[in-house]
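Late entry, evening session. Most of the bench is empty. Finally got around to the prediction I had been postponing all week. Sequence below, unchanged from the version circulated by S.P.
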Amino acid sequence: MLEHRGFSAWITSENRGLAEIEPRVDEKNHTVTCWIAGPVGKTFVVHWRDHGSKVDSASYIYFDGFKVSGQFLYGSGEELRRGVRVGEREERPFVFSKISADDAVGFEDKATNKNVGSIILEIKQVKREESYGPNRVREPPKVIRGHRQEGDVCVRYGDTRPAAEQKPTWKIKPYDPNNRGPFVTFVFRYRSQEWLVSQGIINPEDEVFCRPPTPLPLAPSRLPTPARPVTFASK
């Protein structure tokens, strides 16, 4: 589990935590970066926790530069994201896969260059204003390959499956107008276990799974509005 500034984040795959390898903290940019081994063919879940900031926060998750809306936390508690929403009651799960010969070489746009091979969770402290209808659903892209070689691990989106009904969201503004960027950012650089070994980042016998943190006990929300529970954050 990565921790910084009163928040933590981790990734699980089939109820097992993915070990964070060589975590490094950038105090200036409030960023924590690590390596993880992506188990090919397995779904995964992104988790995060507010340890008691008492400030509302909105999260944003990026897979190879493609943004997936996160969720709100209201000063404490825990949230997760299992997949990208593709319909009012449908989602496609996050899956570690392999680059195939048919995956197009290159980038969707220049902005994704530095983010290929990374799962990024940004958490912003915010002030909520009025609520409004659910965010627009976007179909996820095909694999953002970059210049990765055939056989390298990548993120895909699995088959469509039922999900909880999409909920309203909030209009927001920065909690601190003088600091509009993320309060904390967690960067998981995912690679195959074989690649991590080849680069000397781990040893062949190193364990790449760990016990995930104990979930927080469920508690009723202290917020009476909007009329339906909030799911997505809006940037």
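Two things to note before I forget:
The radius of gyration is 18 Å.
Residues 36 and 190 are 5 Å apart (CA to CA).
Will write this up properly tomorrow.
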